Amino acid sequence: MTAPTHRRIITRLSTLLFGSLLLLLPAHAHAQVLVVANPGVAASAVSRAQLRDVFTGAASGIKGAAQVTPVLLKDGPTQDDFLGAYIGKSDTAFRAAWRSLLFSGQAVLPRTMDSDTEMVEYVAHTPGAIGYIAQTSPHPGVKILAVR
Amino acid sequence: MNRSSIARTLILILPVLAAAHLSAQSADDLNLQVHGYATQGFVYTNHNSWNSTDSEDGSAQWTEAVVNLSVQPTPKLRVGVQARYFLLGDYGDKIALDWAQLDYKVNEHFGIRAGDVKTPAGLFNESQDIDPAHLWSLLPQSVYPIASRDSLLHHFGGVIYGSVPLGERFGKLEYRGYGGARVIAGSDSVFQPLRDEGMTVPNGLRGPMYGATLRWQMPLPGLMLGATADVERPAGEIDMGPLQGTIQSARIVSPYFFGKYENSKLMLAAEYNRIPVSSTIQFPGLPAIPSPSDYRAFYVMGSYKIAPKLTAGAYYSSFMNRSAPVSSSRFQKDWTVSARYDFNSFLYAKAEQHFLDGTAIGFNASDNPNLQPTTRMTILKLGVSF
To answer: Fewer CB atoms inside 10 A, N or C side of chain B?
Structure first.
């Protein structure tokens, strides 16, 4: 094997390895979403792990609130931002996972809202509800949970 | 009706009675949900008939429809029932109960479900027959054979479940413990090798079973390692022409080891499973016939979301019955590439290509008098869920 060929192979392998490592990095980009909760939820913050567990059906409470109910948004940029920043799943994989829980008898599906306005309205009037909206959306009647 | 049939009937009716009792409340109070899905598959093989379909000519004898009814009157209590129409070649073609259960979750650490419940073994067993949940038209057949609906999917009894936090540095441990009775209908594909030998199991097999699964959700988000130990002891009657005898297995202890990594668009998974079976067939006045099997299976798989609506993946699956005589019917190696396109939240299509070496799974001797050792199989599937 000639030296240039050898270098080319090493370069390609390095690129491939670096690309693979990038894929493995968790998505911790700053999210353009707000996590909102019913004012009765006795928590002011939630950890990323708790948020992920609640929105994937693995847990039904967060620290300070033993029982919360996740509420989803339909497909769209806010949904993608939320899933990318906190859940680590694509929308397809996220919905497939919920269907898996539903049809295997492990959960019922969370409610899905059509818009941020509808989300805010529902969360404001539903005890224990927790959802997410775009950072720029008005949010009267709900509390904002800090994500740590 | 014998005692076990009565008990089973009661188990099935219980959730319905509970739902009826709760129906005095409004549907909104109960959080009543009705969901379902339906799929239509088309399969073509270059030779060899797959799972009793006429796949050599192209076959659409692969249809499923599922209806799910669930209520959650309180955050801790759920009641649900699911029915399924299943047709694959000569298998199924009837509506059967998938599961019917009561689920009470005390807290994050402990919950219990009872009735006809899914068996939480391995990585995908609870969801193996839920087509909308997967990229694949067929999960690796070495561990999750599609034509066998009774041998591992569900049991009559219960499941306890929960999770134990291990701290931020160590993640979380999830557990499932299960037990009850397994009933395998005589028409299940697991008996196909016996049928090929001229024997039938008219009333199926039944027996006690129990097991446990641990899943370690590791500190790296999306990474999980797990293991299952499944214990079964099936027994029943067996016919061969005019002869009527019994078939009994020694205790079958099956381990599963599995792992999964999921992050945004990428999914990687692998699983190993072993099922050592030591059965004895006994006809009156004849010497006992030992029927040992030692199934060893594993797969590795990966998928990637290429575009917002398009996901693609590949897996390699391997199966070997180490007790069987050396031939192409004792093993199967399967290279598979697959793609799924989601038109919207409800409608999707799948395309899958299998390159199969060996005929151990899905290729019955009785359907394939000229069985070839290798097969190429193409699958197209359309699904809708709501």
So the answer is: N
- Is residue A50 in a domain? yes
Please determine, for the modelled complex, whether the ipTM score is greater than 0.90. no
**B130-154: pLDDT as tens digits:** 999 999 999 999 999 998 878 889 9
Length of chain B: 386
- How many angstroms separate the CA of residue B333 from the nearest CA in chain A? 27
Query: How distant is the Cα of A20 from the closest Cα of chain B, in angstroms?
Result: 10
A40 part of a folded domain: yes
Residue with tokens 């004895």: B280
Nearest CA of chain B to the CA of A89: how many Å? 4
All domains in chain B, ordered by first residue: 3-385 (2.40.160.10)
Cβ-based neighbours of B241, under 8 Å, separated by 6 or more: B198
Mean of the per-residue pLDDT values of chain B: 91
Domain housing A64: 33-147
> In terms of C-beta density within 10 A (0-12 exposed, 13-18 middle, 19 or more buried), how is residue B91 classed?
buried
Tokens for B114, please give them: 């009872």
| Number of separate domains in chain A | 1
Minimal Cα distance from B175: which residue of A?
A58
pTM of the full structure: 0.85
Other Cβ atoms closer than 10 A to A74 = 14
In a mutational test of the B interface, the residue from A67, A92, A125, A126 whose CB has the highest number of chain B CBs within 10 Å is A92
Model confidence pLDDT, tens digit, residues B51-77: 999 999 999 999 999 999 999 998 899
Query: Per the structure block, which two tokens stand in for A38?
Result: 């019913």
Give B94's strand partners.
Answer: B86
Considering CB atoms only, which of A88, A90, A95 is closest to B222? A88
DSSP B292-353: EEEEEEEEEEEEEEEETTEEEEEEEEEEEETTSPSSGGGEEEEEEEEEEEESSSSEEEEEEE
